[in-house]
Design brief:
The chain has 11 helices and 9 strands. The protein is of the alpha/beta class and 274 residues long.
């Protein structure tokens, strides 16, 4: 499988995105379970299918671009308001980046590591051994370190922030059991990680929110970054609700690139704590 990924990593991004768009629609049409979840999640957020149908192709592009992002050269990336990151770095207290499953969230961390500062990213280890090794190795690149969704991974992120480094999280990812609370997401209770508020309380890091969008015709990506407005509440449930509200806002800015097929409302699974 790695050999296939390495081969595809050299393909032009426009070709990968074209193939991915077709793959996205084939998957949508062939899988009733995926299609139902996509439609239910979009409906929960108040969207008709006509308003989010572009997200079908975008989900396929996400899969097709993965070999390029993991093993290939850096594709073109534009940063909107990079001074926001530079100002946060100058404060010297670490940066916590939050981004939903929107657009090409994979490239934002890699681009930030190359342009601004080393970054530690949270990832969920795959259950299958071959895929687990592939993901772990591909996400540990120069300037970028992968931290698993375990207590050891949390300690790893704390160390990075306390030394003035950066950490990246997808807070709309369902955390393992015991590492989250139930909070509303588009009007429905979703198991939500408490990690962002815990990291901020213990480090005082700057909190930035990011969305990375695919540009048309495979021209690359544009990263939009801004400060999180306000302060997270001390109460874990209230803080999780604040984070979810911010993620909702970002999704509504570009609903056609959100991963509506993600099982956001599933029950958390148990994982090892070491």
């Amino acid at each position: 499988m790695k050999r296939l990924f390495v081969m595809l990593s050299g393909w032009p991004l426009p070709l990968l995105h074209s193939m991915g768009a077709l793959l996205g629609w084939l998957t949508f049409l062939a899988s009733p379970t995926y299609r139902r979840r996509f439609m239910d999640n979009a409906r929960q957020a108040g969207y008709r299918f006509a308003e989010v149908r572009g997200a079908v192709a975008e989900a396929g592009k996400m899969l097709a671009e993965t070999p390029r992002l993991w093993f290939g050269d850096m594709p073109p990336v534009e940063w909107d308001r990079p001074e926001v990151v530079e100002q946060a770095l100058a404060e010297g207290r670490g940066i916590l980046f939050l981004t939903p499953h929107l657009g090409c969230f994979e490239i934002s961390a890699r681009s930030a590591a190359e342009r601004f500062s080393p970054i530690t990213v949270l990832y969920r280890p795959a259950r299958k051994v071959w895929l687990r090794d592939l993901i772990a190795n591909s996400r540990s690149r120069p300037g970028m370190t992968a931290a698993p969704t375990t207590l050891a991974g949390v300690r790893q992120m704390l160390r990075a922030l306390k030394t003035g480094g950066a950490v990246g999280l997808l807070p709309d990812q369902v955390p393992p059991e015991g590492m989250g609370v139930w909070a509303p997401f588009f009007g429905r209770e979703a198991y939500t990680m408490t990690l962002p508020s815990r990291l901020l309380r213990q480090t005082g890091a700057a909190l930035l929110v990011v969305r990375t969008l695919r540009l048309p015709r495979g021209r690359g990506y544009r990263v939009h970054v801004r400060r999180f407005e306000g302060t997270l509440a001390q109460d874990p449930v209230a803080a999780a609700a604040q984070v979810n509200a911010e993620m909702e806002h970002m999704v509504r800015e570009t609903p056609s690139q959100y991963l509506w097929g993600y099982a956001r409302y599933k029950q958390p699974r148990q994982e090892a704590s070491a």
